[in-house]
Structure formats: C-alpha cells, structure tokens
Amino acid sequence: MKAGYIVTEGSAARIEVREAPIPEPKTNEVLVRVRASSMNRGELFVGVGAYGRGASGARPAGSEAAGEVERLGEGVAGFTPGERVMGRCKGGFAEHALFDARELMRVPDRLSWEEAASIPIVFLVAYDMLVVNGRLRPGEWVLITAATSGVGVACVQIVKALGARSIGTSGSEAKLARLRALGVDVGVRTREGNFVEEVMRATDGRGADLVVNNVGGSVFPACQAVLGYRGRFATVGYVDGVMRTELDIEALHTKRQHFFGVSNRLRTAEERAETVRGFVADLLPTIGAGAIRPVIERVFDLDDLPAAKQYMESNAHLGKIAVRVA
Model pTM greater than 0.90? Predict the structure, then answer.
C-alpha cells in the first residue's frame, strides 16, 4: 500500500510517500480502508511536540483518518466490515490504517470523507478544552488566539453552538471576515499579544471567562491579563516555539484563575476513550444534524503530500487541509 512518512534530519522535516505492507490488526484494533485524512501542524514540528531536538529518522505520518472498516482484531465488538468510521490513529496518510477500537467513531451520514477526516483531532481537542476542562456555559466569553487554525475554527463553531461568545485573533483581516461568518463575535487583527484593550472593551471590563492559547509563550502574559475572575486558561499549542514565559502570581491568586494544558501524549488509552465517549454523546449529534460542519480549505491527493505540507506551512489556509486517498 501507499503510505506517507515524515522524515526528520536534525531540525528539518520532510514528508514523502513510500510503499509499505498492510498492517495486521491486533487485540482491540480495527483495520480501516482509509478514504481521507487531514493535516495537523503539531506533527510537523521538529524540536517540540512529537519530535525531540536533533532527532533523525522516519515515522508514519497522519494522526487521524476516515474510511471503511475492513477487518477486526481480537476482542473488538460493535463494528462490522463496511461501516463508515473515523478516529485518531497513527499512520493516517495511507491506504490502510490501524485504529484503537475504543477511539473509533461512526461517521454521520451527511459528512463527506474529507469532512469526517477533519473531525477527530481538532474537534476532540476543542471539546476537551471547552466542555470537559473549560466548563463553558452559555453567555460566557472565550478568547481564541490563532482562531483561524484547525483547532481555532473548531473552537469558534463549538462556542457558538453552546450559546457562548467568542473573540478570535488573526493576522489576516480577510480570514477574520470568514471567521465572523462562522460565528466569531469579535475579531482582532493581530499576531502579537496586543489584544488586551479590545478584549476588555468587548467584555465590558470583566475579562474572558475562558482563554484558548493556540500560539504559545509569546502571548501568554497578555492572555492572562485578560482572564477574568474564576477564569480558565487552556494551553494547546506553541506555534511560536516560545516554551517559557512569566506567570502573574498575584492575578492567579486574587482572581482564582485556573490553568490547564490539553495534550494526549501522556494519557492512557482509557482516558482518551473517555473523551471520545463524551464527544460522541455531547457534540457529535450536533455535527450530525448539520449545525456544525468542518471547514476545509483545500484537498490534496495522497501522492501530493509534500505539496500539502508546503501549503500548510504557508499559513494561507483557514481551518483544515484534507488528504484524499483514492
């Protein structure tokens, strides 16, 4: 089968398509005939995230996909061959991929393969931040930095669906206009941490109830400055590469602020599965009904993975970049 691999050499990474054997499902695994996958910026970083500094080698690329159940491993129940499914996985940029059955979800009928493949990472992450840990309530204000990213767009859509209000930042006025059409209440054009005044004005001086930091340490102080009383602060990304920052201890103390990170790297399989079950119960019906639809900027074929990576790194897109598997 054809499969995409990320090849790292020191601080550089490239993506290439190779021939690979079709994997065999083990206990609690499902082999899926992949029809589409999508790109996630985090797995392309070298030096942070999935890759250590100076690491070299190749690993299967693609962390989510959608397709048809082909074969079940031992102990798997509840799925049948031919069913349309989606989920997180390793090696999603391939004609076949293995999934942990506990993280596999059925695809709502109205979704295309590309839309389904654009859900498992960003929407589960957004659900984890906004609902599970963020405890978002109707009417609350959410600041979303880098709101045009895949996670950012998913957050904008979920915030609106939950009856809350969002402030999104982006360096592009054209992208902010598209975010407003998706439901963002206030758009702030900036790539820096100079949004404090506008956030405080939008919230009548109260500050944000929840902050989603997709950027990293460079905007951390500003994000904390706009966090209100009993505010929750989620850190999910660090595209700026800034891994250290200052914390305002006085504000943390007096405002009773709550800080948390969102990452699956150290979670157990059951912890990940618990989030999937919550998402399926709480949010997937809304997606299935059409109230939320994944935003896909562009679709590439599997053979064009290098071009897809280059397009992602150009920062020209809003939402997701999908990969079609013929």
Answer: yes
Angle value at C-alpha 215, between 210 and 219, nearest 5 degrees: 75
Place domain 2-119+294-324 in its CATH homologous superfamily.
Medium-chain alcohol dehydrogenases, catalytic domain (3.90.180.10)
Coil, strand or helix: which one is 94?
Answer: strand
The candidate with the shortest Cα–Cα distance to 2, out of 15, 318, 14, 194, is 15
What is the domain partition of the chain in residue ranges?
A: 2-119+294-324, 124-261
Structure tokens at 204: 């009548």
- One-letter amino acid at 314 equals S
The model's pLDDT over 45-88, given as tens digits with 9 standing for 90+, comes to: 654 444 444 456 899 999 999 999 999 999 999 999 999 999 99
The listed CATH number (3.40.710.10, 3.40.50.720, 3.40.630.10, 3.40.720.10) that belongs to domain 124-261: 3.40.50.720
Dump pLDDT digits (tens) for 174-232.
999 999 999 999 999 997 889 999 999 999 999 999 999 999 999 999 999 999 999 99
Q: How far is CA 170 from the centre of its chain?
A: 17
User: What is the enclosing helix (H) or strand (E) of 313?
Assistant: helix 305-313
Contacts of 192 (CB under 8 A, 6+ apart): 218, 219
Q: DSSP secondary-structure letter at 31?
A: E
